[in-house]
Amino acid sequence: MQSEKSLRNTCFREEDKQPSESSWKKFENVFNYELLPYETTTQGSKKTSQFLLEVVDILLDYIKKNNDRSYKVLDFHHPHSLRNALGPCLNLDDDPKDLEQILIDCKETLKFCVKTGHPRFFNQLSTGLDLIALAGEWLTAAANTNMFTYEIAPVFTLMEDIVLAKMRDIIGWPDNNCDGVFAPGGAISNLYAVLAARYRICPEIKEHGMEVSPKLVMFTSEYSHFSIKRSAAILGIGTNNCIGIKTDSKGKMMVKDLEKQIEKTLASGAIPFFVSATGGTTVLGSFDPIWEISDIAIKYGLWLHVDCAWGGGALLSKSHRKLLNGIDRADSVTWNPHKLMGATLQCSAVLMKEKGILEKCNSLRAKYLFQQDKHYDITYDKGDKAIQCGRHNDIFKLWLMWRAKGDSGLESQIDKLMDLSLYLQKKLRDKEGFQFVINEPEFLNVCFWYVPKNVRYIEKGCRRDALLDKVAPKIKSMMMETGTTMVGYQPLGDLPNFFRMIVSNPATIPDDIDFLLEEIERLGEDL
Amino acid sequence: MQSEKSLRNTCFREEDKQPSESSWKKFENVFNYELLPYETTTQGSKKTSQFLLEVVDILLDYIKKNNDRSYKVLDFHHPHSLRNALGPCLNLDDDPKDLEQILIDCKETLKFCVKTGHPRFFNQLSTGLDLIALAGEWLTAAANTNMFTYEIAPVFTLMEDIVLAKMRDIIGWPDNNCDGVFAPGGAISNLYAVLAARYRICPEIKEHGMEVSPKLVMFTSEYSHFSIKRSAAILGIGTNNCIGIKTDSKGKMMVKDLEKQIEKTLASGAIPFFVSATGGTTVLGSFDPIWEISDIAIKYGLWLHVDCAWGGGALLSKSHRKLLNGIDRADSVTWNPHKLMGATLQCSAVLMKEKGILEKCNSLRAKYLFQQDKHYDITYDKGDKAIQCGRHNDIFKLWLMWRAKGDSGLESQIDKLMDLSLYLQKKLRDKEGFQFVINEPEFLNVCFWYVPKNVRYIEKGCRRDALLDKVAPKIKSMMMETGTTMVGYQPLGDLPNFFRMIVSNPATIPDDIDFLLEEIERLGEDL
């Protein structure tokens, strides 16, 4: 970790610029208005290519370092010291910077990035950097269009239809006469699902508001993603009317408690309308028993949503799709290809069994965007079913990556990750000082405590828990400061802080897992 | 326009591949798993660079064509014929495609893209392709991180703080102790604003739902963006409780009508809580009188939102910021740098005067993401104030573009566009057969009818309107089929369809405007 002073002296420097790349010199005192689209001469066009190729060169260098285990995962600095050091260099001024400075800016920015594609980055559900998806993202940026109409996004609109249909086929809805849309992340996808369910139970809310609605109550496991609860807050249902259902020792929703809560709700005079089953919870990676939950949903007429933002990719594996058994009985599904499938961020789909429900629920028919007298078939204009107006093209990178891997490539990627998870579990079992939070995890989340020697022989109880609670944060802190690897931790209910290891990076090999465990031991041994 | 058959034969073809680029041949039978991160040998690393450079080559070619007036803006095909022709070629199969096919896929996709950066693309509010923003977007994709915590997005978090503070300074809020977040588009930004306003008037809704709320009513001009109304639908307020305020002959909100509607609401026993003033309406480009509206908002205790998603950029111009006079009296502002400022899609900010309101309104304190015992200052973790969980990095491209242009560069870009708008207006005035929808438009939307000779001398009235209503769609249809230029049209209230010309592309020069008008005359003359 550099000192604040040395940070200030080396970063984003404008005086005494000495870029390592001598080829950047030719951009000294060259400004953006000398490039396309301002300067359309051959000269302008040539400079544009040269400039973009220099940027690509910087990015290729970063990509290589991302994949080189001799480079650190991150170069950590505390927020205030990074802010004090870089703040003045990051300023936006009245005058333009020349393109040499812009190249320096790119290079310096990457220096302080966390290498989320590094084989030893295990910190989030989304890890890795797929290079076909990256290429797709670069093209998306150059095409710079908007998904609201076929008019300005013809091929991408078709691709979205094709990919959504493919995803629904994989879910297994009997005839594919269904609906769906790509949304900016799983939280918004979940919001779409609750919104559609609310529309089905009481379509009048759209015009008249919740005042014409009976009191609505929704259900989700206590370990589900917080965006389900947040949807209740946003939609005016209220977080108190989003009931957290108890989970069993594996972190799965207890169907008996679900039914009990539904009965309790009915007895209170309120209307149960929605239940979300999670396919891969954020912390434990648990899969709720979808089939049994769907029986209850049918019995009481609830909308069944499956939030498999995280676990959806498992559907692509013949060996592992059983985790989501019953998903074809769902009314809606959230599935994020930017997680398990490895697409770059953002890429999230929400799929609906009922065709047309999104349009009915969300459309407002703005005449200036969705003209009814266009010369082409306007059923291809998808914008009015989205809650966004402008909508980023999240489809091309996914489509391209899927082309390059095929179903078979994605399947073997997922199977390989599942094998790695078993490898990690075996290692943990064989090593002293490690303890599972859940024995035999069924997915890619492997949650465990590292118990330092000084704590190892203390009797189970409050004192031990209090000590243990401090271990993971302490190790994580040292890990970040050395920058060698990154893994998440958190408490859960009454459980003290534990590590949550996520095996979702296709770049990872068994050696990297060994490295992580050894690093935890090395840093934590004497705590 | 090619026939369906010839389309099918030439596009995305896998048999008899004859890519024009012989350098692609080396990717025949080379698959994604031979690249990084799977193949970390020198060979794998080299192939990765080669592959990405081929992609960049395709993109550079596209960028050049984007800026070359001898290329068409689009190659139009009807949805069903594009679908029939390309559908089978776009399929996702079990087997992977080789990287040669992936390069063909990229090239073919671009062939059917609408060139939104072309100097003769005038169809949307967002036009143009800024190459610094593009470079920023490429870096963003390579960095592939998520904005929820400082932990994994340290520099980008600082950049977001810096840019938001800069934007608030420009708005003119007296001390910059305020709030804000980047959101996926203006519609979601507007949703944030209504949500925060609802929280301020009745914070209990978050937990208890709308049933504990008095009846809430909100106001916006009849010409405002439909996302304000949609927010009412989503939040459970109801579209009927979003009152459209009348506009004057310039399309500006009539403050008298606003006050009348507020009084009417109060008389009915409901609570007026929110008013949105539009800074640049979508169709006419009108600016509501913010200052006068803010007087009313203060008088009645309403939250004042300014939706200047479109017009916000005008704040950067000393000559034109008066359009938004009074904006510093707003409680919240939506401002999309992906529109007037020219950043690539998506880039939208929502800014709030009250510090901490977003956090209070939206946070749910998920312990697994926002651990309270981290070793760094967690006030830098911004995720819990967003309604998304994962959040795309929309800041870097904007920051980089702003660096490269400086305030002065952005100002002159906006001034230049305003001059071009005046140029267009003068041309329209001087030409026969063109008629303004609003005389002397004050912004970059220039709305006009082209009146063909056969209609020109018909008396004003229903018959003329009915004929005129068909002219713009017909011309637009021919324009798209020839592909030479693109401009939008729509009706408005009782007005028959008219063209809405948007001057927002920094690539445009007066010649392009002449070209558009001549093209309209050429295509429409004999209608």
UniProtKB/TrEMBL annotation, chains A, B:
GO terms for molecular function: glutamate decarboxylase activity; pyridoxal phosphate binding. One of its GO terms (biological process) is gamma-aminobutyric acid biosynthetic process. InterPro entries: PyrdxlP-dep_de-COase, PyrdxlP-dep_Trfase, PyrdxlP-dep_Trfase_major, Pyridoxal-P_BS. Its cofactor is pyridoxal 5'-phosphate. Keywords: Decarboxylase, Lyase, Pyridoxal phosphate. The keyword Magnesium does not apply. Pfam families: Pyridoxal_deC (PF00282). The modification N6-(pyridoxal phosphate)lysine is found at K339. GO terms for cellular component: cytoplasm. PROSITE patterns: DDC_GAD_HDC_YDC. Homodimer. Belongs to the group II decarboxylase family. This is DgyrCDS12720. It comes from Dimorphilus gyrociliatus.
